[in-house]
């Protein structure tokens, strides 16, 4: 896919990655974006990566844009566009023309099944100009061998600049939560919360 000239600046973003089963196969993710329009437009382009091509990938759902009568003004427009190396592009219709400097909040959910969930697990954001805050969070089955940490790299580099450990916090019984908040992130950098991926049970 070619670089996208988006009509929206992502000012704040929250990504939540949730493992739904003890075998680490069923994954639900939720992504909330606070947008500011740079020019009149009604389509938000959501780029993401699906790293387990042999697994199951369902089309994203849009849970934001609720009207007082219960209907939704936000919706997925057309099928997800599939690119090389697992890249995806979902087009979200905001239901109205958003004028310059107006803001809109969009929430998108994904459901995946990873057939071979043995690679490093992670949730991340590649920063573009105008982003002021990133919240990265994961909710995982509790295990003693989890090693949560966060790190960052320049988008033009294959090397991570540093890696720092994170604490695990109890969530629901048998589950733990790890999160990290980045204020004033650097444009053209990728920030990632990660953990050692657990191998499937025999």
Structure description:
- 0% of the residues lie in helices and 53% in strands.
- With 202 residues, the protein is mainly β.
- Strands 1, 2, 4, 5, 9, 11, 14 and 15 form an 8-stranded mixed β-sheet that branches. Strands 3, 6, 7 and 8 form a 4-stranded antiparallel β-sheet that branches. It has a 4-stranded antiparallel β-sheet with strand order 10-16-12-13, with no helix packed on it.
- 21% of the residues are buried.
Compact overview of the structure:
The protein is mostly beta strands and 202 residues long.
Number of helices: 0
Overall 3D geometry?
globular
- Report the sheet-strand fraction: over 45%
Question: Rg to the nearest angstrom?
Answer: 17 Å
Largest sheet: 8 strands, mixed
- Strand tally, please? 16
For this entry, give a set of tags:
202 residues; globular
Which SSEs are present, and which pair or pack?
Layout: E1 8-19, E2 26-37, E3 41-49, E4 56-57, E5 61-62, E6 75-76, E7 81-82, E8 87-98, E9 103-113, E10 121-126, E11 133-141, E12 149-154, E13 162-165, E14 169-170, E15 175-183, E16 189-195
Parallel strand pairs: 1-11
Antiparallel strand pairs: 1-2, 2-9, 3-8, 4-9, 5-9, 6-8, 7-8, 10-16, 11-15, 12-13, 12-16, 14-15
């Amino acid at each position: 896919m070619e670089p996208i000239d988006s009509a929206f600046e992502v000012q704040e973003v929250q990504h939540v990655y949730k493992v739904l089963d003890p075998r680490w196969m069923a994954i639900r993710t939720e992504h909330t974006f606070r947008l500011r329009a740079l020019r009149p437009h009604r389509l938000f382009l959501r780029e993401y990566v699906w790293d387990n091509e042999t697994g199951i990938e369902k089309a994203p759902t849009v849970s934001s844009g609720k009207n007082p009568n219960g209907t939704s003004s936000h919706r997925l427009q057309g099928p997800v566009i599939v690119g090389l190396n697992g890249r995806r592009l979902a087009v979200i219709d905001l239901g109205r023309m958003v004028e310059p400097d107006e803001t809109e909040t969009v929430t998108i959910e994904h459901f995946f099944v990873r057939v071979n969930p043995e690679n490093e697990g992670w949730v991340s954001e590649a920063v573009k100009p105008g982003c002021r805050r990133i919240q990265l969070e994961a909710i995982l089955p509790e295990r003693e061998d989890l090693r949560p940490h966060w790190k960052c790299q320049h988008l033009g580099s294959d090397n991570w600049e540093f890696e720092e450990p994170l604490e695990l916090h109890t969530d629901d019984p048998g589950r733990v939560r790890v999160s990290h908040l980045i204020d004033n992130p650097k444009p053209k950098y990728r920030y990632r919360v990660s953990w050692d991926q657990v191998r499937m049970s025999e």
